[in-house]
Amino acid sequence: MKEAQRKNIICLNGRFREADQAVLVKLTPGRVEQKGVFETMRSYNGKVFGLEAHLNRMERGLQVYGHNRPLNRKKINQIIADLLQANDLKDAKIRISSALQGRSVMQAVVCAPIKKNPDSVYRQGYKLVSCALSKPRTKFSNVKSLEYGFFLKAYESAVAKGYDETVIVDPTRHVLEGSRTNIFCVRKGCLQTPPVFSGCLNGVTRQMVFRLAKALNLPCEVRKLQLKDLLMSREVFLTNSVIEIMPVRSLDRKKIPVLHERSVACKLLSEYRKRAGSK
220-222 and 190-193: which strand pairing? Predict the structure, then answer.
């Protein structure tokens, strides 16, 4: 007998309801046919790590779209707590979407079990493929927008070809970011990552890495990078709130060293998990 399908309780505009797969797909960034922003975060033992930073960025994104009303943070906190309880979850992936409808905002909060990567994946690292971005930078380039179609297709295409993630490069062949990640490399003893002004998203985990690097006395530099810079690096890793800090083992089928316990990525991941309250 097949195990009963797990229910999924979501919150739409403050109302809780059970959602099937069709509803969840319809609410996926890149498939939502509305303008707006979203944030994806992770809870550890029932507590969302970096929630305020995510909500700050969501407010800034809404302002770019011309919506200047502040978020009701107390209400959002309560919704997340209620969803975790309703779905019987402590460690979860949480997504808040704010879609614009005239002067109002339709808010959807989805909470799902986190698919944790085993330690072996962090030891082996991700396989990356590059993907060119043809459109020029706009004021929305630094916004985590629901108009996410290009990045969703790039990610799905990479996975279909056997890769774990794609690296987006601009028309001048400079590295921007992953489809859902920020990218770092270690070159000449210095941690390096592309600048936000180039068109990448200022990820919450990206910002945390800066703070962790400072605490660990690791030199850190924001500078333009090309694919060849990544390939010549001592190590490369990706960051976001779900995968945390993930080493990279190859780019366009060319190997990149994964140094395991001796790596900068490993040190940062250990400190990150301490702050997040991960076991």
Answer: parallel
